[in-house]
Amino acid sequence: MTESDTRSDVGRRWYAVHTLPRAETSAERHLERQGFDVFLPRIRKTRRHARRLETVLAPLFPRYGFVALDLGRQRWRSVNGTIGVAGLVMGGELPQAVPVGVVETLAACVTADGSVDLDHGFRPGDTVRLVVGPFAGHLGILTRLDDRGRVEMLLSLMANPVRLKVARDMLEPVR
Mean pLDDT over all residues of the chain? Predict the structure, then answer.
């Protein structure tokens, strides 16, 4: 990377784009055709359709996506007129930048199939170690994950396992 490449990204930040209902993919496609860098985080969801279950990729944030912009160099107002876009999320007269690290962290969790892995690689049945709290260092078996960032585990205390619910970030995998 040259010095000029570094300077060209100085003012570049991620901004939230509010889309029309169920138009996230259309907005993503049209923004990309205009040359914008777009990130639409998706998760795997199981839905019931015509008496059968199917797993689909659905937006992690329904009606929202992210676009990378340099407000000083790019014609950012054209984003608002893009097919599928309701408008940029504004903070007064200018678009409101997403806090640094949010989009980058989500992008780092994208798997090969294009979905975001919010479980940090955890699966039911995994052996895990608590890293914070009064039981830090104790091992347990992960039994369940929920959509709110919590896990249920069986903690090995004395002779009997104890069922415990904790936040995902309180655990580390035991390899």
Answer: 88
